[in-house]
Design a protein that fits this description.
The protein is α/β, with parallel strands linked by helices. Helix content is 54%, strand content 11%.
């Protein structure tokens, strides 16, 4: 097909950048460049390499998502100011990404409330020990942290945690909603009770925690709330109808809260990580 001169030059420049950035090998860049002239461009040949370009982007994104430096860069942009001297409340921070969040934030000088119900990945059991273990790790490293074993599905327990945090530090600047469980099963085999339980933790848990800190954030005219969503909700994943529905609901909650919170400088965002860690 015909391609105007200016567009051909733009495409050539893009291929050169891909080569320099390592997105595509030099040999493939040369092959792509050879398909271009000022008048004609074979888009089918370029499309042949789109899979490798997309794969590189995905691998790069996943690698970055597991980096604490990446996390801190994102948080600093979202929160407008560095988290130093800020008070963070992390829901579900005893393992996996939550633990990584807590340790990275504490290393930057943040005061951290490590919350975790202490149940297994299916949401059964419960113990305050996992949250206290992470808080102790932070304190041993010179950080400032306390723990609380509240369940995000229990408004009274969350209110107790928020009141205790305000009594100790006088502020809650940032909430990270990270609580989650799994009840995986194909859709015909998934019980309604499992659906309700998963939605209670992921979606209603985010509602309960956000409502608990919202009045304080509104009163001081500052707040940051970070939701944790999932590719299972955005793109789908076999056997995770309940999980995907709950995680997509979190996105809807975020979209509404960021509108309602704008006048009081309460900003609400979401992370959609892809990781292979314990929840």
């Amino acid at each position: 097909m015909k391609l105007p001169r200016k567009q051909a030059i733009v495409v050539q420049d893009a291929i050169e950048r891909w080569k320099q950035d390592g997105v595509i090998p030099e040999a493939q860049a040369a092959t792509l460049a050879a398909t271009i002239d000022v008048q004609y461009f074979d888009w089918r040949k370029l499309a042949k390499y789109s899979f490798w370009i997309a794969l590189f982007s995905i691998v790069s994104s996943v690698s970055a998502a597991l980096s604490d430096r990446w996390l801190m860069d994102i948080l600093e942009r979202l929160f407008a100011t560095p988290p130093i001297a800020r008070c963070f409340l992390l829901a579900a921070a005893a393992a996996g990404l939550g633990r990584s969040h807590a340790r990275a934030l504490a290393a930057r000088g943040a005061k951290v409330v490590v919350n975790d119900f202490g149940g297994d990945v299916h949401g059964t059991g419960g113990s305050s020990e996992p949250a206290e273990r992470v808080a102790e790790e932070i304190r041993q490293a010179g950080g400032d942290a306390i723990s609380h074993g509240a369940s995000v599905t229990n408004p009274d327990q969350i209110a107790h945690m928020v009141d205790g945090t305000l009594a100790k530090w006088g502020r809650i600047d940032i909430l990270i909603n990270n609580a989650g469980i799994l009840r995986d099963a194909s859709f015909p085999k998934s019980s309604l009770q499992d659906f309700r339980t998963v939605i209670d933790v992921h979606l209603l848990g985010s509602v309960i925690c956000s409502q608990a800190v919202w009045p304080h954030m509104k009163a001081v005219g500052f707040g940051r709330i970070l939701m944790t969503t999932s590719t299972s909700g955005i793109y789908g994943n076999f056997g995770q109808a309940n999980y995907g529905a709950a995680k997509t609901g979190v996105i809807g909650l975020m979209n509404v809260l960021q509108i309602e919170g704008a006048r009081n400088d309460i900003r609400v965002n979401a992370l959609c990580p892809s990781a292979a860690t314990r929840m």
